[in-house]
Input
Amino acid sequence: MSDSDKTALFDSHAHLLDPRIKEAESLLQGVGRVICFYEPGEDWEGFLSFLEDERVFGACGIHPHTASGAGELMGELPRMLSHEKVRALGEIGLDFYRDNSPRDIQKEVFRRQLETACRMEMPVVVHTRSAFDETMKILQEFSPGKVLIHCFSEGAPEARDAIKSGYRIAVGGVLTFPNAARLRDAVNIIPMESLLVETDAPYLAPQPVRGRVNLPSYVSYTVEEIARIKGVSFTRAAEASFLSGSEFFGL
Output
């Protein structure tokens, strides 16, 4: 992989404030752009310090895991979303796998944040786990302008539904796992212009570095797998995902 290939990489989802990675040496090495996710209650000043890097842009939102504690945090979102380098509301959505917050509260907080996104005309980055149909149903109630399904792990039928609705899809290291045949089938039918790549760092490190703390630079492994599935060069896959990410986040 050449140096020019590396600079074309766009990690559309990373949690740079996580203590497991925020002090990592060469954290952003080889990555041209990164979206750093922030949740109200985290280190705002630390978040702003990352945004000082010309490669880093932000997204703010209340995760479904913490929906039960949303309360007054909801009121802080408009101010955070107004920062010039914050380009999306997220990650928001539903998680019926872990159920860390009651499902009715997850739905309420999801809807309230979608209302905010529509009012502020912000792109939305959506978390959905074991709740795809319900997530799609709620999204269609609001029709936000831009929707990105984060860490997509469904199959081709769900991918078609998302694309038909005009949504974009982001895939990460799970694509490289041996048991991810269904996801690879989905990626095969997703148009390149609708496909983004991500790490979800520090989580879900790709197969070649599985078991390690995930870093934005590891997004290259996912790009390599997309190139293999699509039958294109690494450079073509990197450039396409960089362009799709830049367009989605308005960069």
Q: What stands out?
A: DSSP finds nine helices and eight strands in the chain. The longest helix spans residues 103-120. Residues 1-6 have pLDDT under 50 and may be disordered. Residues 29-248 form a domain with the TIM Barrel fold (CATH 3.20.20.140).
